[in-house]
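ok here's Phage tail protein, seq below lol
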Amino acid sequence: MPENANNTANVSYGKFKSGGYFFVAPYGTPLPTDNTTALNEAFVNMGFMGDDGFVFDNSVTTNTAQDANGDTIASDSAAPTKTMTTTFREIKAASMKVVYGSGNVTDADGLLTVHDKGPNNETLSAVIEILLKDGRKDRKVIEQCSPNQLGSESIVYSSLVGKPLTWSIMKGKTTGDYITDYIDSTETEEA
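and the structure came out like this:
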């Protein structure tokens, strides 16, 4: 095959690791640096997520300057805005603490109590375990994020209950990345 030719081995649908695929930990928890090492025990499984999966939005504001005739004479990109949106399907203490803030949720004596005081602005770290075709793994690591925008919650007999949430993703202080992906390669030469 010619070098740099199209390769169907690099095309895949995104599925998720069975038994747990979205994990959240307090910011500052040691992060994985590959896609095989076990996660630090501080990472908590968030349970089932909605069938829209994870939606990442990337936007950049462009600053433009015009001269006296209204002609653009300079253009510069401002800092990017990165967000992730997903829907929590499991209504349990761990996920509700992420949605509403750890101090607003208690689970005692068989009663889960959630105080909705607006969005949670805690800074967290997140890991998403993705499975590509042919058993390839993609571990998406988000060093610094904040779950700060609650979506519209619809409760109706024909749909699962869910808590939609949009996260702000910030550039990590340790990695310098917004997101780091550790993906099994189809092209790496054997050592």
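fwiw The chain has a mean pLDDT of 89. kinda neat tbh
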